[in-house]
Structures are given as structure tokens and as C-alpha cells.
Sequence to fold (453 residues):
Amino acid sequence: MTIVPTLRRRVFNLAWPVIAENFLETLLGLVDTYLVSHLVIGTLAVAGIGGALQVLYFMISILSALSIGSAVLVAQAIGARDTASASNLARQSLLWSVVISVPLAIAGWVTAVPVIGLFGMEPAAAAIGVEYLQVTMGTIVVLVGLYIGSGVLRGAGDSRTPLVVTTIANLINVVLAYVLINGAFGIPALGPVGSAWATFIARAVALAILLAVLWRGRNGITIRGSASWRPNFAVAKRVMSIGVPAALEQVITSGAFFVFTAVVGRLGTEALAAHRIAINALSLAFLPGFGFGIAATALVGQSMGARRMDEGGQVARIAAGWAVIWMALIGGIFFFTAEPMMRLFTDDPRVVSAGASGLRVMALGTPFWAIGFTYAGALRGTGDTRWPMWINSANIWSSVLLAAFVGIGLQGSLSWVWAAFIATSPIAPVLVVLRFRREALRLAADHARSLAA
Fold:
């Protein structure tokens, strides 16, 4: 009877640093948005940066296959007590991230002008977006390295080190963002692009610290050793076989949000600025879902590696319960404080009104997303990344197409566009839960047959 309280502690102890880390990552974006929004060209800057960030997230999602695949396989190796394989997976994932991300970053820099032009922004906002995007393309290599390193440590049961590293990055970013955006200490004001440079420098320092930790070793995993730094296509194939479907899911999702942002952009600069601010604020409500979803991936992966299938099912239920409670609570707070929250970032009454109404609508979907995030994470822990891809991709695109019909076809307001977007949100969680339960039963049956043989 003591196993459930023990699992609750394991889930919570792994999840809360992830939630705190993601909170700090979100805070980094909120601080930059706050500083930029108070410039004379605040509304234009927020709109331009919003478009650039959507492109950046899309590019990062392409590279997420390495981080997702390595995190799942490291967790399973740790569950099987094979730290040598876990260490080799970490080295290879970091190596291949550089090989793949550098050409992609260059391509993104070259195509910044036509890509930003897809959002249909007015020229002044588009110019800011292009400049911001060209700087942030360099952060792709850094960000993917951070994601991989953090995922490896979480797979090994250490979620506190990534939290410490992210805390340091945020402290650096706050100081640099203020100095580079506004100018101080003899440094000229760079305006909106200053926040991009601040974020790049802060994350580069964070990556250096994280690599140093992995080099020294943590929980039996280390990236030391020269031989295993040579490209190993067999390891890459294992990582990509799990990671590619999950990455494709993120690419499809980011593409959907790209189109969704373009739809909102057609409503005007004020609507796009309101959309960006509200999404930044609402991303705080997603943090428990992401945190408990990542915890579910790691702990279910460890359970699979140790052949304890029943424990994996209990982990998923516990993680989903925690996520629903916290996301619903935060969503409720945002629902009742939407206007004051918007006023933290802008004094434009049209932006405040549009953003607040939309934020209230989006807050209603938080319990459904909580279940979807955690059970999708649990399903990935079993090594099944294909079903979450199909379910979530179909769901998100049906939402975007419905929103596009309301926004463009019916010329609805931002709140109506968001209402259309969340209309299909209950469908994916139900399908993911059913798939996880079926997969857990199949793995348990396979293990029983192997024991009998």
C-alpha cells in the first residue's frame, strides 16, 4: 500500500523542478515582451517579435527529435540500470544536434524576409520581425543543446540541475535585456532586437554550464570519452525512430500555430499584439501540464526499462491528476484577472480588450489540455511516439481550420477565433488515454509471455 504515496513523491519531485524551470523560461519571454512593449513603438515591436518567435518555435520543433528520442531512451536505459548506454546516447544526441541544426539555422537566417512576410504585417512591424528573427536563428543550436542536456538529466532522475541552469540564464537575461534594449553603461540602445541578443547570450552561458555538469557526470551519466564522440548511425537510428514521430508532431503543431498566428495577423496589428501577449500569459497555465508530462515520460520510461508495467500506469494517473488540479486553478485565476494582466504589457485599450476576452476563452480549455499533455508524455515513455503524433496533429489542425473559417470566412473577432480554436480540445485527451491503456496492457502481456517462455 506504500507504493502509491512513494510514486506520488517521485512524480512530484521530478515534476516541480521542471515546472519551475519552464516558468523561468516563460518568464524570460515575458520580461522581454514587457520591456519591448514599453518602447515608443511597443505595439509594432510586440507584433513583429511575435511573428519571429512563431518561426523560431517552428524551427526548433524540427530539431526536437533528438531531445525527445534521447530522453525516452535514456530513461529506459536508467530503468534497466545500463548507465553506459545512457551516456553514449547523451554524447551522440549532442553531436548530431550540431550536425543538423547549423545548416538549418543558416537557412532560416537567409529566408527571414519572405518568411516574416507570410504574416501580412504592416512594413514597420515586419522589419522588426526580420531583424529579430535573424538574430534568434543563432539560438537554435544553443536551445537544442539545452533541451537535449536537460532531457538526459531528467531521464536519469535529475530535474534540479536544469532548474539551476535556467535560473542563472534568467538572471543574466534580465540585466542584459534592459541594457541592450534601452541602452546603459555606455552601450547604445538596440531597441527590440536587443532582447534577442540578451536571450542568445544568456542561453549560451546556460548551455556551457549544462555541458560542464554532463562532462563531470551526474547520476552515472557522463559525456566524457573521445571514442563515442564519433558519429554512430546505429545510435542515431534508435534515437530518431522514437524522436522523429514526436518531432513531426511538434512540427505539425508549430505549423498549425504558424497558420493560426497568420490568421490572427489578418485581424490587424492590435489583434496580433494582443494574441502574442495573451499567449505569453496563458503559457504559464501550461507549465504544470508540461512538467507532469515530462515527469510521466521519464518515470514511465524507467518503469518500462525495469519491466514494471503496472507502476507506469499509476504514474500516468498521478501525473494527470496533479496537472488537472494546477492547470484548472491557474486557468481560473487568468479568467478573472485577464484585463489587469494585459495592462501589465500595454496601455492600448484595443489590445487590452481583445487580449483579455481571448485569454478568458482560452483559459476554459486548460483541464482538457492537462490530461492530453500528461498522457501523451506517458505514452511516449513507453516508446510509442506515433499515436500521440497522429491524435494531436489531427486535433490541432481541425482547431486551426475551424478558427480560420471563423476569423477569415465569418470575419469574427479574436475571442471568437480562439473560441473556435478550443472547440475540439476535449477530443484528443480521450483518445490518448485510451491508447495509453491499450499500450500498457500490450506491454504487460508481452512481458508475461517472455517470463513464461
